[in-house]
């Protein structure tokens, strides 16, 4: 026999598991490199940008020793700030567009917002 209460309980348990997994994604780091490792980017599994590391060879491949560490750190900080700001703006636009569709209602559908 079909039991609606059992189905609702299972759906709630699944929603809790989805929420737990979604929350744990922030603890998983994903690292990628380019240029043979001279540029390294770190994000988490929630697709949040965390950092960038640039080796002197990426800035001056002919004379990496000429590149000042402070210059590299400043460049890394500027790139990090720009990417994080772009991600924030993209998220705000996405939320605004979704609110247009839903009329401002929070549907609480996993992955929708």
**Beta-strand percentage range:** 15-25%
User: Count of DSSP E strands?
Assistant: 3
Q: Which range best describes the helical content: under 10%, 10-25%, 25-40%, 40-55%, 55-70% or over 70%?
A: 40-55%
What's the Cα radius of gyration? 21 Å
Mean pLDDT, nearest integer? Answer: 89
* Secondary-structure element series: HEEEHH
- How do the strands of the widest beta sheet line up side by side? 1-2-3
Cα-to-Cα separation, first versus last residue = 36 Å
Number of helices: 3
| Poorly predicted regions | none
Characterise this structure.
52% of the residues lie in helices and 16% in strands. The protein contains three helices and three strands. Strands 1-2-3 form a three-stranded antiparallel beta sheet.
Could you give a quick summary of the protein structure above?
This protein has helices at residues 4-24, 56-59, 69-102; strands spanning 29-34, 39-44, 49-54. It has 113 residues and is α+β, with helices and mostly antiparallel strands.
Q: Secondary-structure map with pairings?
A:
Layout: H1 4-24, E1 29-34, E2 39-44, E3 49-54, H2 56-59, H3 69-102
Antiparallel strand pairs: 1-2, 2-3
